[in-house]
Amino acid sequence: MNNKPSSHALDARLEQGREELTAVVERLTPGQGVHATRWPALSLFRADSPSVPICAMYGPGLGLALQGAKQILLGQQTFVHEPASYLVTSVDVPVSSQVLRARPDEPCLCLTFQLDLQRIRELLPEVKAARAAPVSSRGLAFSPLDAGLLDPVLRLARLLDAPDDLAVLGPLIEHELLYRLLTGEQGAHLAQIATSGSQGHQVSRAIDWLRRHYDEPLRIDDLAGRVNMSASSLHHHFRAITAMSPLQYQKQLRLHEARRLLLADQCDVATAAHRVGYESPSQFSREYSRHFGAPPLRDVARLRLADADAVA
User: Fold this and answer.
1) Which of 144, 162, 193 represents a domain boundary (last residue)?
2) 32, 73, 89, 192 — which has fewest CB within 10 A?
3) In a domain, 1, yes or no
């Protein structure tokens, strides 16, 4: 006798779980934007209308789009995140993200679970099941959502209204969630990034150094030496994971930070350029325009107008 659930039953379970989780996220996000939760690793997002592209730094995490759709640009690659898939980010990557599909009566709803690579590293010896080969070596990749992964996310979301239960059961559910990720389609890549001494882990260390020193001059030979790689190997594996070279990655970090400074009204264009490592304000303005499609002040004015329209 075969007691294995049919594909129809699994599809029905997935759809039912997704509908329940969507309802929970919509209830817990009364307004637009990112919402923290009682579980620090878990955050929720809501948008009631499409948006202009915005810069973001995606750290290691699991992302679920529950309703609506978002477009994500990494390097020259474009991805569309919809409810049928889950997103895994294994390293810090600078992206451009925008809401494609949302309206007030059917908002774009997303959930993000921040991944602790140290916890993943500790869990690896317990993972006995063979992990499938990674679909992509990219630091950002998508796979089809299945009920096995959705279940622990849904149970954790249910506990957000029961803080006493969350404190006791949350760590157990998080352990299961990490296990599901490691035995899923992206598990091999996550394991490779988390394993000390692996090429993926060495690239992760290079990314961490760039994040902390983006405003300093960059010599590839020096960076390669810091992470015990040859310059050619670093360049090859860095591009495979981030879809850009270390120099391109540094440039995006600089431009994203400059945009943040300008939006926060913390300085003028020349000062922002200097703070993020540019010696020439004119070179900064040229590269900013190429990257964001408009000179700094015009781009910032456009973003502020879009934010005002969204609030209105």
Assistant:
1) 193
2) 73
3) no
Contact between residue 215 and residue 254 where contact means Cβ atoms under 8 Å apart:
yes
Tell whether 102 and 235 lie within a shared domain. no
Number of domains in the chain: 2
Instruction: Report pTM.
Output: 0.85
Q: Are 143 and 88 in contact (CB under 8 A)?
A: yes
DSSP 23-84: HHHHHH--SSEEEE-SSTTEEEEEESS----EEEEE-SEEEEEEESEEEEEETTEEEEE-TT
Question: What CATH number is attached to the domain comprising 270?
Answer: 1.10.10.60
Domain end residue (candidates: 193, 210, 240): 193
Tracing tokens 């690239």 back to the chain, one arrives at: 203
Pair (286, 150) in one structural domain: no
With contact defined as beta carbons under 8 Å apart, do 31 and 48 qualify? no
pLDDT by residue for the chain (312 residues), tens only, comes to 455 566 666 688 899 999 999 999 999 999 999 999 999 999 999 999 999 888 889 999 999 999 999 999 988 889 999 998 999 999 999 998 999 999 999 999 999 999 998 999 999 988 875 454 454 568 899 999 999 999 999 999 999 999 999 999 999 999 999 999 999 988 988 888 888 778 888 999 999 999 999 999 999 999 999 999 999 999 999 999 998 999 999 999 999 999 999 988 889 999 999 999 999 999 999 999 998 889 999 999 988 887 665 555
- Collapsed DSSP state (helix, strand, coil) of residue 84: coil
Look at residue 2 and tell me if it is in a domain.
no
Q: Which structural domain, as residue segments, surrounds residue 148?
A: 7-193
